[in-house]
Write a sequence for this structure.
């Protein structure tokens, strides 16, 4: 047993942290936050050059072929820097769907483009309120074309292609759902940007009207593939959330050391100290659960579904907890647009919903634990 | 990152498993499996005797205090082997709870500060469970503020003469030895006038009076010292350096307790898996599932946090104050878990003991849980430790820091 990242992986983390500290300071995040750009193009290009976008993509498809542990390490740094780029939708969702279910031709077409930063991808799953469920997929596919509306689609307005979940049957079972690949720049696709909690990562509504689509994976297998994609993304997002939690905690700690009230550093007041200690506790639990998820993901262990759900819940809670209390520690300053606290608060709460809500994952976790116990 | 056993670890596991399979007191397995915090009872046997017999058997075969050096009665195992052992020992591991203070705190303190001949004399019988040790720190006037203690030690020839009172001493009523923190100089600030000793609990002048706990059990005691003589060679560390010595004990205490605290989660999950509520199985109820999931990730988070700590340890890193989170999280969790289990039982939840649901398992847990949040440092002290030593926040303001001990006020009001 060795429950830690390797020295090489830690070196990669340092490298990523340094790179992001330089290329993605809060000031750069704010350009996107303030709506002056839909995402940070320069950063995206830089990430591609560093090999970060294709870190888990095999070499034969233009990636670095390093693996998922390395991707977890990068994910943590993306979260810590609050990077305003379509990393999660492209790398965790679209690329992973292709890796799991893509044909050789599909992989050859899209994966090198992802690794080089030329293509942005996303997953179009949701249709309004609700959690991942075959029942909530109403968009239909027939005769090679899609009809229906997806919303919200993460980074939908800037994506080049989408993996779309569509209804292809009416049996009322999971195998009514199939996945399709759609070139979003082609005809029959209408994209509208939506305002959202976290403008540093956009959301869109995409309307498909007889839009051309090619199947991704076998017909009727869509839900099974999606479940795998969501589990993998849950672990990877958990690392972003862990990075965000740590950063929020650090900001709170630093402020508590600097700010004086009643003639003392506010960090010497026990109520403040204990709030920060509790943030540390939740961030640590999340990190540990995420490490277990990383191990399960990287080895494709039978434990992955349960580990992914646990990492997801724990990291979602930790990031929300740290982000909200970071504002509290900052007092009135924390509630200004000028201070960075709200960027993490926005990101924490947007991320809490992106792969399905907390209660959805709670439900998943218990189901999976039951199954394991029954086995 | 690797969660699987290495070939070497797998071999160790197989050896341990085979030995446990052939030697463990299987007749108690069922009862131990059904026990929980606050409710470890063997109906037809004295649990202390059963625990001592199991510990002795382990020691004779080289399975006691795995991480201790061999010359002191241990096995010289790696931290990971220790984890594997405890996984394999399963419910029988609960029997060693009797020895946790001796093995987890007194032993390491002896190892760090006792003379070599004392280590060789006292440690092996401690490892084998033949001799039980207790920790005599807390006093009516010094709990969280351990350094506020008043038990005096005065030099008389080659002996020290002890007078005073300890309180909350777990296991003192069946202990053979104890480590004792005393005040040797009341005229200097409180942290500077302390000295540590170990002593024979059967020494003349030691009186142990069991205290009945809130849970109804009597695991801890008051201990009175009247002119108790301790030879100077039983001093641990320098005169006046007792505070530093006690820090070693307390650090070890936190990792020993932190690693061993129960969360109550496995018990609750098992319960909800079979429990029928008015409108169906508990485990299918939305609200129940949400509660369970929240506790599940805390329990797994603690488990993997300790695995991370062990990985760090095996690379030669020192255990840090991070260990404080185990007890902090588990303490209030087990209290909440027990409260919730009773809530699921509705009005019937009020019935405890043998008459209660599952023979009062969760009721016993509820009544014992408050102690977990106090023993070995309260929740508040744990948060202070995390805030100060991990996050680097300022220490609490100490109004008594530079005041001679005998000038510090002793009561809050009047
Ligand atoms: C089951 C059990 C077993 C025990 N076993 C042993 C044993 O074997 N040997 C031994 O020596 N002791 C033992 N203890 C004693 C234990 O270590 C003390 O009870 C504990 O350290 C708290 O001290 P206290 O009881 O004096 O509470 P106090 O220190 O009086 O605390 C009262 C309240 O004030 C709070 N408080 C105190 N100081 C601070 C501060 N600086 N900041 C914020 N809040 C503060 C506490 O958190 C608590 O809520 C045991 C206790 C229990 C409950």
């Amino acid at each position: 047993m060795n429950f830690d990242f390797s020295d090489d992986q830690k070196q990669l983390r340092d490298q990523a942290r340094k790179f992001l500290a330089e290329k993605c300071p809060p000031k750069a995040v704010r350009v996107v936050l303030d709506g002056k750009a839909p995402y940070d193009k320069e950063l995206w290009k830089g990430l591609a050059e560093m090999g970060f976008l294709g870190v888990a993509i095999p070499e034969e498809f233009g990636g670095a072929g390093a693996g998922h542990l390395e991707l977890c390490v990068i994910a943590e740094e993306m979260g810590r820097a609050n990077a305003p780029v379509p990393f999660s939708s492209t790398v965790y969702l679209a690329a992973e769907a292709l890796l799991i279910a893509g044909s050789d031709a599909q992989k050859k077409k899209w994966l090198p483009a992802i690794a080089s930063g030329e293509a942005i991808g996303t997953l179009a799953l949701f249709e309004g309120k609700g959690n991942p469920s075959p029942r909530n997929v109403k968009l239909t596919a027939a005769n090679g074309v899609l009809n229906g509306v997806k919303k919200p689609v993460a980074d939908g307005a800037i994506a080049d292609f989408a993996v779309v979940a569509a209804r292809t049957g009416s049996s009322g079972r999971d195998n009514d759902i199939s996945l399709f690949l759609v070139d979003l720049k082609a005809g029959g696709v209408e994209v509208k940007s939506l305002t959202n909690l976290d403008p540093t990562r956009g959301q869109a509504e995409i309307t498909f009207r007889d839009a051309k689509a090619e199947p991704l994976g076998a017909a009727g297998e869509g839900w099974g593939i999606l479940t795998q994609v969501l589990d993998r993304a849950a672990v990877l997002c958990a690392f972003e959330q862990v990075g965000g939690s740590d950063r929020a905690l650090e900001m709170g700690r630093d402020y508590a050391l600097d700010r004086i009230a009643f003639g003392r550093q506010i960090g010497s007041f026990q109520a403040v100290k204990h709030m920060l200690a509790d943030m540390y506790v939740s961030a640590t639990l999340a990190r540990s659960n995420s490490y277990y998820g990383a191990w399960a993901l990287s080895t494709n262990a039978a434990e992955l579904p349960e580990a992914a759900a646990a990492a997801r819940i724990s990291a979602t809670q930790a990031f929300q907890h740290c982000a909200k209390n970071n504002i509290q520690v900052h007092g009135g300053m924390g509630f200004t647009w000028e201070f960075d606290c709200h960027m993490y608060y926005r990101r924490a709460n947007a991320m809490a919903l992106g792969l399905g809500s907390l209660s959805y994952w709670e439900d998943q976790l218990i189901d999976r634990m039951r199954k394991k116990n029954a086995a | 990152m690797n969660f699987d056993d290495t070939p070497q670890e797998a071999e160790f596991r197989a050896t341990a498993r085979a030995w446990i399979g052939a030697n463990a007191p299987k007749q108690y397995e069922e009862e131990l499996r059904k026990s929980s915090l606050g409710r470890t009872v063997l109906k037809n046997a004295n649990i202390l005797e059963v625990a001592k017999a199991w510990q002795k058997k382990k020691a004779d075969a080289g399975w006691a205090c795995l991480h201790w050096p061999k010359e002191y009665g241990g096995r010289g195992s790696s931290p990971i082997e220790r984890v594997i052992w405890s996984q394999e020992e399963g419910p029988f591991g609960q029997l060693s709870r009797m020895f946790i203070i001796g093995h987890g705190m007194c032993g390491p303190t002896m190892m760090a500060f006792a003379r070599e001949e004392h280590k060789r004399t006292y440690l092996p019988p401690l490892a084998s469970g033949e001799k039980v040790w207790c920790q005599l720190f807390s006093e009516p006037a010094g709990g969280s503020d351990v350094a506020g203690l008043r038990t005096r030690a005065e030099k008389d020839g080659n002996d020290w003469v002890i007078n005073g009172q300890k309180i909350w001493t777990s296991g003192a009523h069946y202990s053979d030895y104890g480590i004792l923190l005393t005040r040797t100089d009341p005229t200097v600030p409180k942290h500077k006038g302390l000295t540590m000793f170990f002593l024979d609990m059967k020494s003349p002048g030691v009186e142990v009076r069991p205290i009945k706990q809130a849970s109804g059990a009597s695991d801890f005691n008051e201990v009175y010292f009247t002119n108790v003589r301790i030879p100077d060679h039983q001093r641990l560390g320098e005169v006046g350096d007792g505070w530093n010595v006690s820090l070693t004990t307390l650090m070890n205490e936190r990792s020993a307790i932190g690693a061993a605290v129960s969360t109550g989660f496995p018990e609750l999950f098992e319960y909800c898996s079979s429990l029928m509520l008015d409108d169906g199985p508990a485990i299918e109820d939305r609200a129940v599932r949400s509660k369970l999931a929240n506790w599940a990730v805390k329990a797994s988070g603690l488990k993997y946090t300790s695995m991370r700590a062990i990985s760090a340890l095996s690379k030669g890193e020192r255990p840090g104050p991070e260990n404080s989170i185990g007890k902090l999280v588990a303490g209030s969790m087990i209290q909440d878990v027990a409260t919730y289990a009773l809530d699921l039982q509705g009005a019937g939840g009020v019935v405890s003991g043998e008459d209660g649901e599952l023979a009062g398992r969760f009721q016993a847990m509820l009544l014992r849980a408050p102690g977990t949040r106090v023993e070995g440092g309260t929740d508040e002290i744990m948060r202070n430790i995390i805030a100060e030593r991990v996050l680097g926040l300022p220490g609490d303001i100490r109004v008594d820091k530079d005041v001679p001990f005998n000038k510090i006020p002793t009561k809050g009001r009047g």
